[in-house]
């Protein structure tokens, strides 16, 4: 395969010197490879004159086949590695962190001999990924039934999550039990990075607010505990993190976009896995 890679590199660069540089090898070594290929093919692949070498028609055909073989080789390696990983790993993706934490915990209890890999992705990436087998399960916010059916996917409810605004007890907004986004649009908001689609919700509904993003959760907690900045919490995140909110009033946000109905989604031919997961969800404490 290495010789074929060098042949394709020569075809792309057009010169031995250019191909040798791109391959980080010497030009004499590349020349020997070209002669070795001609010996293996038992036909001339190049037209040579005193100072140059160029592919002839045989060589151009060889390059075409070599390119296909290299692509097939890469695809084979990728698929075999993915297959091996799938035998030992349950890959999950989600549009938000809290349901991802919850699903990962349940899956680890269901199949303790498997590794659970998890990541945050967009809805489009997740639908494509679960359809092609990249993910065993994905977690979407209220997916459309028609979309799932069209893609031969099935889903089941996992959890509901609602945003609350954590307000200092002495803050003017603390007199409210419920609010809408528009009621505090314009206030500075402390925001933790990596919250998935919730960040899009905040940007859409709080255009006049300054969103003070923190990438490190420990820094976020330290700032939240030592300042009067407003920030969001959900009861799911407090339960999962086992981190109660002290000296703050939790004001429920009543906009429709402030509540997410998360569903776990799998391929229709993986219904047994989904049913076992749903049973484990129902049995959680």
From TrEMBL:
GO terms for cellular component: protein-DNA complex. Keywords: DNA-binding, Transcription, Transcription regulation. GO terms for molecular function: DNA binding; DNA-binding transcription factor activity. Residues 1-56 form the HTH lysR-type domain. The keyword Nucleotide-binding does not apply. The keyword Transcription regulation applies. Coiled coil: none annotated. Gene3D superfamilies: Periplasmic binding protein-like II, Winged helix-like DNA-binding domain superfamily/Winged helix DNA-binding domain. It comes from the Bacteria. Pfam families: HTH_1 (PF00126), LysR_substrate (PF03466). InterPro entries: LysR_HTH_N (IPR000847), LysR_subst-bd (IPR005119), WH-like_DNA-bd_sf (IPR036388), WH_DNA-bd_sf (IPR036390). Belongs to the LysR transcriptional regulatory family. This is MerR family transcriptional regulator. It comes from Bifidobacterium lemurum.
């Amino acid at each position: 395969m290495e010789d074929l890679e060098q042949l394709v590199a020569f075809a792309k660069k057009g010169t031995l010197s250019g191909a040798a540089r791109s391959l980080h090898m010497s030009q004499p070594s590349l020349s020997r490879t070209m002669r070795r290929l001609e010996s293996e093919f038992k036909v001339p692949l190049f037209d040579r004159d005193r100072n140059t070498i160029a592919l002839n028609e045989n060589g151009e055909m060889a390059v075409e086949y070599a390119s296909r073989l290299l692509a097939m080789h890469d695809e084979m390696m990728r698929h075999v590695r993915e297959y091996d990983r799938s035998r030992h790993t349950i890959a999950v993706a989600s549009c938000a962190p809290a349901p991802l934490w919850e699903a990962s915990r349940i899956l680890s209890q269901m199949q303790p001999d498997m590794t659970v890999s998890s990541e945050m992705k967009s809805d489009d990436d997740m639908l494509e990924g679960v359809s092609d087998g990249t993910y065993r399960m994905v977690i979407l916010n209220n997916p459309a039934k028609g979309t799932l059916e069209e893609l031969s996917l099935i889903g089941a409810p996992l959890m509901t999550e609602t945003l609350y605004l954590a307000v200092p007890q002495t803050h003017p907004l603390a007199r409210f039990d419920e609010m809408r986004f528009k009621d505090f649009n314009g206030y500075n908001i402390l925001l933790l990075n990596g919250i998935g689609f919730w960040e899009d919700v905040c940007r859409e509904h709080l255009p006049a607010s300054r969103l003070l993003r923190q990438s490190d959760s420990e820094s976020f907690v330290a700032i939240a505990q030592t300042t009067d900045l407003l920030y969001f919490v959900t009861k799911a995140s407090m339960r999962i993190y086992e981190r109660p909110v002290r000296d703050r009033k939790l004001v429920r946000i009543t906009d429709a976009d402030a509540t997410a109905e998360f569903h776990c989604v799998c391929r229709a031919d993986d219904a047994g896995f989904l049913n076992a997961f749903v049973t484990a969800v129902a049995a959680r404490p």
